[in-house]
TrEMBL record:
Domain of life, per lineage: Bacteria
Signal peptide: none
Subcellular location: Bacterial flagellum; Secreted
Record-linked InterPro entries: Flagell_FlgL, Flagellin, Flagellin_N
Keywords for the protein's UniProt record, in alphabetical order: Bacterial flagellum, Cell projection, Cilium, Flagellum, Secreted
Family according to the record: Belongs to the bacterial flagellin family.
Statement: the UniProt record of this protein carries the keyword Calcium: no
Domain Flagellin N-terminal: 3-141
Main location: other
Protein name: Flagellar hook-associated protein FlgL
């Protein structure tokens, strides 16, 4: 088989082109810091990187969701801290109102104080977040949870939930009925077996009305007042226990969210390392290969140049 000059030329050019392509490829790796810059560089690693990238995006979304959930739960806990203080103050005043030495005017003054606490509690129950959404209204966040005058709940019945991790869907708020219209299972019952009033604002309204009613010189009215004060005291104690139970639930959720954040951070670090192993350049290998390929390319240039200078006249000298 004859080897023509043109064939030798094409083979040498092909070798130079291949060497140049490899040399540029190593240069690109060092320039970008990535071993895989396009799917053709490593199809398997590239496909795995796509899947891993989707997992990283999902993990980032859950991190953002937990941030929102923590803010929401923390805000509710802060508001209920103020509710607890107000309820304890109302209890103190109700207990003091049971003092038999008080006059009608004294009890009327206590009623005025209780009215102020009651209005404060309604305002707290109608608290909003930074976007003007009512936090105790369930999914009906665009309207106040409670009527200011009657204390009637107007919010939604379904509490807000948030997907905070791939396998965890968490309730991140409580409806107003869960907080201000409910008692725990071990609440103190009414002595006569009647159904207790569970709406906190109506408990206070009844107590205020009773304290404003004059009773001096009327034993029947005095006895009824004492019964009303005892009932209000039980109602407030049961309401406080319920609020404390809700706060305990919020504390548990905050702890869980912190644990999920730690898990998410560890997962993100692991995913970052996996992505690096898949597509990032091995600097030692890349620099070594770049240098070797550069030397090979220079040798190819030299050989090709020498071959072009050859002729029959030079060989016959």
């Amino acid at each position: 088989m004859r080897i023509s000059t043109q064939m030798m030329y094409q083979q040498n050019m092909r070798g130079i082109t291949d060497s140049q392509s490899k040399w540029l490829s190593y240069g690109e790796q060092m320039s970008t810091g990535k071993r895989v810059n396009r799917p053709s560089d490593d199809p398997i690693a590239a496909s795995q990187a796509v899947v891993l990238s989707q997992a990283q995006a999902q993990n980032s979304q859950f991190t953002l969701a937990r941030s929102f959930a923590s803010q929401r739960v923390g805000l509710e806990e802060s508001v209920l801290g103020q509710v607890t203080t107000a309820l304890q103050s109302a209890q103190d005043k109700i207990v003091y109102a049971g003092n038999g030495s008080l006059s009608d005017n004294d009890r009327s003054s206590i009623a005025t104080d209780l009215q102020g606490i009651r209005d404060q509690l309604v305002n707290l129950a109608n608290s909003t977040d930074g976007n003007g959404r009512y936090i105790f209204a369930g999914y009906k966040t665009d309207a106040a949870a409670f009527d200011q005058a009657t204390g009637t709940y107007n919010g939604g019945d379904t509490p807000i939930r948030q997907q905070v991790d791939s396998a965890r869907n968490m309730q991140i708020s409580h409806t107003g009925s869960e907080v201000f219209e409910s008692f725990t299972s071990n609440a103190a019952p009414e002595p006569d077996g009647s159904t207790p009033e569970t709406n906190l604002f109506k408990i206070l309204d009844n107590a205020i009305a009773a304290l404003k009613t004059p009773v001096s010189g009327d034993q029947d009215k005095t006895d009824q007042l004492n019964l009303d004060i005892d009932k209000a005291n039980r109602g407030l104690r049961n309401s406080l226990d319920n609020v404390l139970t809700v706060r305990a639930d919020l504390g548990t959720k905050l702890t869980e969210l912190d644990a999920l954040d730690t898990l998410g951070s560890d997962r993100a670090l692991g995913q970052t390392q996996q992505m690096s192993d898949l597509i990032d350049v091995d600097w030692n290998a890349a620099i070594s290969s770049y240098t070797m390929q550069q030397a090979a390319l220079q040798a190819s240039y030299k050989a090709f140049s020498d071959m072009q200078g050859m002729s029959l006249f030079q060989m016959n000298k």
